[in-house]
Each structure stands twice: as structure tokens, then as C-alpha cells.
Amino acid sequence: MPLSRLSVTAVRNLHPVTLLPSPRINLISGPNGSGKTSLLEAIHILGLARSFRSTRLQPVIQYQQDSCTVFGEVSQVAGGVSKIGISRNRQADYEIRINGQNARGTSELADVLPLQLINPDSFRLLEGAPKQRRQYLDWGVFHVEHRFLPAWQRLQKSLKQRNSLLRRGRIERSLLAPWEAELVASGEQIDAFRQEYLQQLKPVFESVLGELADIDGLTLSYFRGWDRERGLAEVLDSQFDRDLALGHTQAGPQRADLRLRVNGMNAAEVLSRGQQKLVVCAMKIAQGRLLSLMERQRDCVFLVDDLPSELDRHHRQALCRLLESLDCQVFISCVDADSLSECWQADTPLSMFHVEHGHIVQTE
Ligand SMILES: Nc1ncnc2c1ncn2[C@@H]1O[C@H](COP(=O)(O)OP(=O)(O)OP(=O)(O)O)[C@@H](O)[C@H]1O
Ligand SMILES: [Mg+2]
């Protein structure tokens, strides 16, 4: 599902531009501060309605402009295109349009344009809080299991209600019962979806990592957020007094995590920076590959910001080869296009874009 057309207006320093990207590899080069990351950010906003650089969209809007807009045409598996657009003004009003209609939520965008981002912050997936790894995991589950989103919404609602009752203190246990029932039902469903997905992801991840790097003894395991031996209802019951004292729910899928270990030790504490980047790339590429395998031809778009950083020549090459082998659309930024010139097979459809002071020009 590649982007066949992309228009960007008033995003950071970028001059208004319309691009016709290659359905495969797109290389974006240019000096520091020219606007390469801003272009990837624009695509990210189109797929997720948020930036990867700041929690708010306000800083993304070009100085002296009132709003920014990104518009794209996404080729669909069944033929035809989906037209998606998003604009955001300084008053924080959003408009998301999909095929001429206002979209109800950002999950609709994500459905039309599944994105995977790899950037210099991605190592946080290993060393950051569990929330990052849950988001990673749930990206995959969301795209392959359509029952995940409603279950996740039910979980959020019941958790919020239970926590707000807990914070009131000295409450009747019966008041919690309906919310707990909902929490248990949706929580166990989410756990089952996550487990099933991981079972399929693990062998793909191992094979991708093997193609990319030589890291012995790396294991990926899943913690579901509560005791493996007991049901969630029983755990909520046994931890009730503690939950009441703390004012929130301790156990459940909201506490799930993925654990990456090397010979039993936390991967983030033993791997080098470059190795961490390779592991994160393998995790994300594995998700993309699995999506293409599971949902016929539902390919995601990869955004790889500053691909060469932290990687030696051999590993750059291995990463490019892998990205090429995916058959997905990829946008790669780098300061100097020559640093990747030897990485591509002669017959790979490659488009090159050069950015200077916010001007994007297609050079090949
Ligand atoms: N809201 C904004 N309006 C206009 N310009 C902005 C805005 N926010 C940031 N900039 C500028 O946009 C420019 C482009 O930044 P960007 O991060 O895209 O560069 P880059 O090409 O990725 O550089 P690097 O190689 O250093 O990563 C920077 O000079 C930055 O100061
Ligand atoms: Mg950059």
C-alpha cells in the first residue's frame, strides 16, 4: 500500500511540495537542517496524526503560518487509491479526511497507511519504559486482528472506571463488579491476541535478526501483566487491598511487557549502540514482513530516518538489502546519498530526492 502521491504544506521548514514517490525505495539526502526529517515527519503525521518528534503538533506548523496540511494518495491492494489528508491549525483543531469524508478517529488513518518508523530514538524500544514495547506489540496486533481495537477500547474504559472508584476509597466491592467483569473479559482477550501474534512474530524476528546481525543468545519473551498461573479475576481479587491503597489497578494487560535479554541480561544494558539499532530494526522489519505474510499484500510503509548513523558499512548494506527484500515502500534519509550508493541491487526501483533549505527536488 505505497504512497503514490504526497503533498506537504507548511510543515516545519519545507516549501510546499508534491512528490510522486517510488513504490519501493526513496532516498532523501541533504545537509543538516535542510528538512529531511521534516519530510518523514509529514508522512508520519499523515499515517498517525502525530509527530515522532514532539508530543504536540503545534511546533510542526511552519513559523508564521496558521496551519499545516499533508495530503496523500495510497494505492490499494484491490486497485484504485485512497485519498487521505490531515490538517492541523494553531487552535489545535484537526481535520482528518479519508476519501472525501471526515474520519472518526486516527485508527482509520492507521488502517489506510500502516507505518513503521526507525529513527535515532528507536533504541528507546529496548531501554525505555514498557509502554513503548506495548505500543510496538499492539501495532502488530491491531493490524492483523480486527477485534483488537474494540477490546482495547473496552479495557481502557473499564480500567478508568475501576481506578476512579478505587481512588474514592472505602467503596462497596459490588460497585466495582461490572467494571471488573469487563476488565477481565477484555483483558484476557487482549492477552490471547498478543500471545497469538507473538508466536507468529518470534520466528520471523529471529530470521530477520539472523540476516542483519550476529548477536548470540538474544531472546524475546512476553510478560502478560499478571501472574502466568492465575486468571485475571483471581489476581484482581487477591490484590484488591493493595489496589485500593494505591488508588489504581496493579495487574492486567496495561502492565504487559516484552523482555529482550542477551544470555539472561537486559539487552539494553549489554548491547552496543549499533547492536541495539540492529535489534530494533529487526523487530520493526519483522513486523512489516509478518504483516505482508498474514494479510495478503498488506504492506506497510517504512520511514528510516538517518539510516547510516551508528552502523558500519557492512551493517548498512545488510539493512538496505533487507529493506529491499521486503517489497515495501521505504523512505530513507541520510546526509550523503553516496554513503548508501553501493547498497542497492542494480534493478531496485530507486527514487532520489535532494533537500536544501526546505526545497525538495527529485534528482533520479
Ligand atoms: N515550525 C517550524 N517552522 C520552520 N522551520 C522549522 C520549524 N521547526 C523546525 N524548523 C527548522 O526546520 C529545519 C529542518 O529540520 P530537519 O530536522 O528536518 O532537518 P534534517 O534535514 O533532518 O537535518 P539533520 O541532518 O540534522 O537531521 C531546521 O533548520 C529547523 O530549525
Ligand atoms: Mg534529521
From TrEMBL:
<keyword id="KW-0963">Cytoplasm</keyword>
<dbReference type="GO" id="GO:0000731">
    <property type="term" value="P:DNA synthesis involved in DNA repair"/>
</dbReference>
<protein>
    <recommendedName>
        <fullName>DNA replication and repair protein RecF</fullName>
    </recommendedName>
</protein>
<feature type="binding site">
    <location>
        <begin position="30"/>
        <end position="37"/>
    </location>
    <ligand>
        <name>ATP</name>
    </ligand>
</feature>
<dbReference type="InterPro" id="IPR003395">
    <property type="entry name" value="RecF/RecN/SMC_N"/>
</dbReference>
<keyword id="KW-0742">SOS response</keyword>
<dbReference type="InterPro" id="IPR042174">
    <property type="entry name" value="RecF_2"/>
</dbReference>
<dbReference type="GO" id="GO:0003697">
    <property type="term" value="F:single-stranded DNA binding"/>
</dbReference>
<comment type="similarity">
    <text>Belongs to the RecF family.</text>
</comment>
<comment type="function">
    <text>The RecF protein is involved in DNA metabolism; it is required for DNA replication and normal SOS inducibility. RecF binds preferentially to single-stranded, linear DNA. It also seems to bind ATP.</text>
</comment>
<keyword id="KW-0235">DNA replication</keyword>
<keyword id="KW-0547">Nucleotide-binding</keyword>
<dbReference type="InterPro" id="IPR018078">
    <property type="entry name" value="DNA-binding_RecF_CS"/>
</dbReference>
<dbReference type="GO" id="GO:0005737">
    <property type="term" value="C:cytoplasm"/>
</dbReference>
<dbReference type="GO" id="GO:0006302">
    <property type="term" value="P:double-strand break repair"/>
</dbReference>
<keyword id="KW-0067">ATP-binding</keyword>
<keyword id="KW-0238">DNA-binding</keyword>
<dbReference type="InterPro" id="IPR027417">
    <property type="entry name" value="P-loop_NTPase"/>
</dbReference>
<feature type="domain" description="RecF/RecN/SMC N-terminal">
    <location>
        <begin position="3"/>
        <end position="359"/>
    </location>
</feature>
<keyword id="KW-0234">DNA repair</keyword>
<keyword id="KW-0227">DNA damage</keyword>
<dbReference type="GO" id="GO:0009432">
    <property type="term" value="P:SOS response"/>
</dbReference>
<dbReference type="GO" id="GO:0005524">
    <property type="term" value="F:ATP binding"/>
</dbReference>
<dbReference type="GO" id="GO:0006260">
    <property type="term" value="P:DNA replication"/>
</dbReference>
<dbReference type="InterPro" id="IPR001238">
    <property type="entry name" value="DNA-binding_RecF"/>
</dbReference>
<dbReference type="Pfam" id="PF02463">
    <property type="entry name" value="SMC_N"/>
</dbReference>
